[in-house]
Design goal:
8 strands; Aminopeptidase; single chain; two-stranded antiparallel ribbon; alpha/beta
Length: 273
C-alpha cells in the first residue's frame, strides 16, 4: 500500500461516509446497502495491499483467517492516535501520530505511521508536524495541526491523544509486552523508546515493535476481559472524541475472538520491525 493509495482511500471514504449518513433512512436504504458493499471491497483491497508490503511476520503476530464481516459493519473506521509526553497543553511534546484503520467487528487492523516516519515513505514532512502540533486548553488537538493533516487528505473518524502514563496503563492492561526478547512492563517499554525528533527511523522501528507487542499480548487475553482499567484513564491521560459506549462496543467486538487479531504496518519496508 503506497502513500498515494492511503491518501486517496482516506479521502474517498470521508466523502462517502458523509453521504451514507444521508442515505441510511427511508426509500434510499437500498442505495445505502450498495454503498456499504463498496466499503467492504475497499477495506479488503487495503488489507491485501498492506499484506504484500509491510505485514508483521507470523512469529510476531498470529496470522489466522478472518471470518466474513456482517454487512451492517462494513464501514471502515480511521482512528487517529496521537502520542504525547503529557496532556499539559502548555508543555506537551509530540511523540507519535498513527492512523489505525479497521472495520468494526473485524480483527484485522492496519497501522499507518504519520510521525515518526521513514525518509523515503512519508505522508508529511515531520518538521511540519512538529512545528504545527499543539494542544488547546481543553486538551484537544490544535487546529493548525488538524488542518495540516486535512491538507494532505488524511481523514479520520475519531481521534485519541494518549500521554505516557496512559500508554503505560494500556500496556500493563495487556500484561506487558515482548520487546527485543525481553518481557517488559509498560514503564520499562516506554523507557526503551527513542525520541522521534532525534532519530525518526529508529523511533519508528521501536514504536512499531511496541505496537506489534501490544497486538501479540492482546491476542492472548481472555474473552470478555474488562475494559474498565483503560476507561479509568479517560480523560486525565487519554483524551478522545469517541464516546464511551462506542469504545465499549468496539472492545467487546474485539474480545469476541481475540486470538484472531492481526495487525499490519503497510508503509514499512520490512516485515520484521
Amino acid at each position: 500500500m503506497d502513500i498515494t493509495f492511503v491518501q486517496r482511500l482516506s479521502k474517498i471514504q470521508g466523502w462517502a461516509n458523509a453521504l451514507i449518513e444521508q442515505l441510511a433512512t427511508g426509500p434510499l436504504l437500498f442505495l445505502y446497502i450498495g454503498i456499504s458493499s463498496v466499503f467492504l471491497t475497499l477495506g479488503t483491497l487495503a488489507g491485501l495491499s498492506a499484506g504484500k508490503i509491510g505485514a508483521v511476520s507470523k512469529s510476531s503476530i498470529p496470522q489466522r483467517s478472518v471470518s466474513p464481516i456482517p454487512l451492517v459493519s462494513t464501514i471502515q473506521q480511521n482512528f487517529l492516535v496521537i502520542g504525547v509526553d503529557s496532556l499539559d497543553h502548555e508543555n506537551t511534546r509530540l511523540e507519535s501520530v498513527w492512523l489505525v484503520l479497521y472495520l468494526p467487528g473485524n480483527q484485522h487492523i492496519n497501522f499507518v505511521s504519520i510521525y515518526p516516519s521513514l525518509f523515503n515513505n512519508r505522508l508529511i514532512d515531520p518538521r511540519l508536524i512538529e512545528k504545527n502540533f499543539s494542544l488547546e486548553s481543553d486538551k484537544k488537538p490544535g487546529s493548525m495541526f488538524l488542518d495540516l493533516l486535512r491538507a494532505e487528505h488524511i481523514w479520520w473518524s475519531y481521534y485519541a491523544i494518549v500521554d505516557e502514563i496512559g500508554m503505560i496503563g494500556i500496556i500493563n492492561k495487556f500484561g506487558g509486552l515482548q520487546l527485543n526478547g525481553y518481557h517488559l512492563t509498560g514503564s520499562l517499554a516506554l523507557d526503551a523508546l527513542p525520541v522521534p525528533w532525534e532519530d525518526q527511523e529508529t523511533a519508528l522501528r521501536v514504536q512499531t515493535s511496541l505496537l506489534a507487542g501490544i497486538c501479540e499480548q492482546a491476542s492472548h487475553i481472555s474473552k470478555g476481559t474488562d475494559i474498565a482499567p483503560i476507561l479509568d484513564l479517560i480523560p486525565k491521560h487519554i483524551q478522545t472524541d469517541l464516546d464511551i459506549n462506542t469504545i465499549i462496543q468496539d472492545w467487546f467486538d474485539l474480545m469476541i475472538n481475540p486470538d484472531e487479531l492481526v495487525c499490519e504496518f503497510p508503509l514499512l519496508n520490512t516485515k520484521n520491525p
